[in-house]
Each structure stands twice: as structure tokens, then as C-alpha cells.
Amino acid sequence: MAAKTPLNIVKMKKMKKEGDPITMVTAYDYPTAQLAEEAGVEMLLIGDSLGNVVLGYDSTIPVTVDDIVYHSRAVARGAQSTFIVADLPFMTYHGSIDETLRSVKRIMQEGHAHAVKLEGGAEIADTVAAITRAGVPVLAHIGLTPQSVHQIGGYRVQGKDEQDAQRLLNDAKALEAAGAFGVVLELVTEDTAAMITGQLSIPTIGIGAGRGCDGQVLVFHDVVKYTSAYREKRFVKTYADIGATIRTALEEYVNEVKTRAFPAEQHAFNPDQEALDSLYGAKRKGEEQA
Fold first, then answer.
1. Same domain, 159 and 44
2. Which helix (H) or strand (E) element contains residue 216?
3. pLDDT (tens digit, 9 = 90+) per residue, 170-219?
4. How many CA atoms are closer than 13 Å to the CA of 37, on its beta-carbon side?
5. Which residue in 186, 232, 251, 252 is the catalytic one?
6. pLDDT digit string (tens) for 67-84?
7. Do 99 and 130 belong to one domain?
8. Which pathway does the protein contribute to (predicted)?
């Protein structure tokens, strides 16, 4: 497969103008990043959702910069032709600008991300402006902001009334003015999300925000049900049940080992050259002959 041309923030604005939806999915490791890139996903997000779906936490709050850097670096190795965004974790951008920029620097230099994502509205606009002045693209995130879930009273849909819709619009415009290249709208009513999308010159990326956004993002583990005891979500469409497939495969492996069905004769080797070639590959044979 020929290498694709990576997305960039100029192309994203052009896609918005032309009505070409932007595709985004989370990724946390090398093989997932490879598969997503091969599938044509245009943006990958190393979300702090890794706390829930990879690290086993009950929220995103315990996720650290070290966690994001580690997983971003793996994703960057697997998807070298895809635009990569990494989350700034909880409380890493609410102190001094110097402290914030140190976290951003690590994510960009060590994690090899192309951009960072911050949760919050007008109250973080100055921080967004400082990061963009430093030459780092920023993807904003409003609506349901999981890092603030305790403050906003749980996982509640946002923008249900005129006042709340206006608040979200004001936040989106402040973030656009601060230099954000796009805004994630999470768990926002469809009408409010469409209204915000129509009033911005930068793309909106929806998750649980309906059909009017300029793009969509989902958590990889939701898309393929890569988990045990999956909890259905109204705003998610699952496209495969990888969790069940993996569980079944492992159950069969355990059974075959216990019954001595595996390994079978074809999985064993005799001490001859043919077996060595099968074990190490033809390359080894060629090297030995050379």
C-alpha cells in the first residue's frame, strides 16, 4: 500500500469548507495505530480515555503525562502517515504557562504527537493561545469534559436549553479566537452541535453530538468491542465484536493445551535443515550460504 499524505490543519479547514467529513479514532498502541492507518483513518487520538480502557482506572483523572508520552510514542511508530493528537492529562494545564509548556514539550518531543488536546472552554483560552504561539497545534474539547465530570455532575448531555447552548457557542468562539484548529463536541445535543459547527471557521469533531459536525471520533475499544462485559452506549455504533472473538480463541487454546491437542505433530520440529528454515525463515538459509 502506498504511503498516504498525512492530514494537516490547513487540509482540515478545506475539508470543512467542502463538506468532507473528518474521521478520527483513539489509539493507544502500535498494532492498533497500524490497522487504523491502513483503514484510512485520518486522525488518531491518544486520549486520556486510555485510563479507562487500557489501564483499568474508573476515570481519566489518574492518567499522567508519562502515560500519554509512552502510548503516543507507540502510536507514532505504527502510524507514520497519520495526524496524531495527544491529550494533556488532568491538571497539567491549569497552573503556570511554563508548567503547561513543559508538559506539551514532552508530548511533542518524546511522544512524537503532531498536536495536543485540551478540555475546557473560554476559561482556558489564554492557555490555548500560549500553546499555539509556541508553535503547537491545539484541538479544543467542550461539552462533556471527562476530566471535569465530578464538577459538572456526571456524564450528562450538554446544550439542552438556550442558555447552555449559548454558553457552548461562546466557549467554541473563544477557543477559535485563541488559535485552536478544531473543537471536539462531546455529548452535545444535535441541534446545538450543528449550530456551533455552522458558526465556526474551524472543524468540529463530534462524539455523541449528532450528524451536523464536520467529523466524528470514537474510542477504538467501543468500535470493536475490545473489552469484557461491554456496556452499550447510545452514541456509539460497534462494527465488530473482537472481545468475544479473543475470548473464544483463548478458551480454545486453553482447552487444547489441557487436552494435549496442541501442540500437534505439525507444530513440532525435527533437527534438520528443513525445520531450521521453517523456524528461522529462508533469509537465515541465504545468509548461511553467503
1. yes
2. strand 215-218
3. 999 999 999 999 999 999 999 999 999 999 999 999 999 999 999 999 99
4. 23
5. 186
6. 999 999 999 999 999 999
7. yes
8. Cofactor biosynthesis; (R)-pantothenate biosynthesis; (R)-pantoate from 3-methyl-2-oxobutanoate: step 1/2
